[in-house]
Amino acid sequence: MYQYKTEDFGLYKKHTIFNTENSNSFSVVPELGATLLHLCINGQTILDGFSTPEEVENDVFVKNRLLFPFPNRLRDGAYVVNNKTYQFPINCVTQNALHGCDFARTFSLRQIKVNDFSGSISCLYYDFGTNTAYPFAHSFEVVYTLSNVGNFEVQLSFVNNSNEEIPAGFGWHPYFKIAPLIDNVKLHLPPSNQIEVDSRLLPVGKKSSYTAFEKIKPIGTQTFDTCFELNQHRKKEFVHLESSIGQLLYWQETGQGKFNFLQLYTPDSRTSIAVEPMTCNIDAFNNKDGLSILKPKERLVASCGISFIPTEDIHFGEEEE
Question: Of the residues 70, 125, 160, 224, which has the fewest C-beta atoms closer than 10 A?
Answer without folding.
Answer: 224
